[in-house]
């Protein structure tokens, strides 16, 4: 082993000094401190948007069930749960994909949903009783509204 020589690249290799490494660490820390408020604001707004989108998808599922079964479907929103009844608001509970054993769709987000009344879809997909639901983020009070028009279209505003 005494006759083996190291390549020239290893002999001339240099590392970073402590001052250079501490300067890079300080820059990374400064960028993290400056980016944190923007990231938290983005996090809150995207959580609110996702919650409103999830509620809109659940209401739209009621419309799809009404069209596929050619019957009226009443979508009832209370708190963070959605219940669908076929044959109107006094009809039988609908159980299917996305519901638990008792026919309740639970919204995953921890947002507050204020009920705007029941929405009833006809067999053609139109809403005989349109409505709107307000989704509120309890952290900053920001709101998004899920609107069901008379045509049956579900939008998030």
Summarize the structure.
The protein is α+β, with helices and mostly antiparallel strands and 157 residues long. It is built from two helices and ten strands; from the N terminus they run ααββββββββββ. The chain has one domain: minor pseudopilin epsh fold (3-Layer(bab) Sandwich), CATH 3.55.40.10.
Task: Please tell me about this protein's structure.
- This protein has 157 residues and is α+β, with helices and mostly antiparallel strands.
- It has a single domain (18-156), classed as minor pseudopilin epsh domain (minor pseudopilin epsh fold, 3-Layer(bab) Sandwich).
- 36% of the residues lie in helices and 26% in strands.
- The chain contains two helices and ten strands.
- The chain has helices at 8-11, 18-69; strands at residues 73-78, 81-86, 92-93, 104-106, 112-114, 119-121, 127-129, 131-136, 143-148, 154-156.
- Strands 1, 2, 3, 4, 6 and 7 form a six-stranded antiparallel β-sheet that branches.
- The protein is elongated, with a radius of gyration of 28 Å.
- The N and C termini lie far apart (75 Å).
- The model has no long low-confidence stretch (mean pLDDT 87).
Total domain modules: 1
Beta-strand share of residues: 25-35%
Q: Summarize the helix and strand pattern as letters.
A: HHEEEEEEEEEE
Rounded mean pLDDT is 87
Q: Count the E strands.
A: 10
**Shape field:** elongated
CATH architecture field: 3-Layer(bab) Sandwich
Largest sheet: 6 strands, antiparallel
Residues in helix, %: 25-40%
Weakly predicted, low-confidence segments: none
**How many H/I helical runs?**
2
Task: State the end-to-end CA separation.
Answer: 75 Å
Query: What structural class results from the helix and strand content?
Result: alpha+beta
Rg, nearest Å: 28 Å
Report the CATH superfamily: minor pseudopilin epsh domain
CATH class: Alpha Beta
Task: Look up the CATH topology.
Answer: minor pseudopilin epsh fold
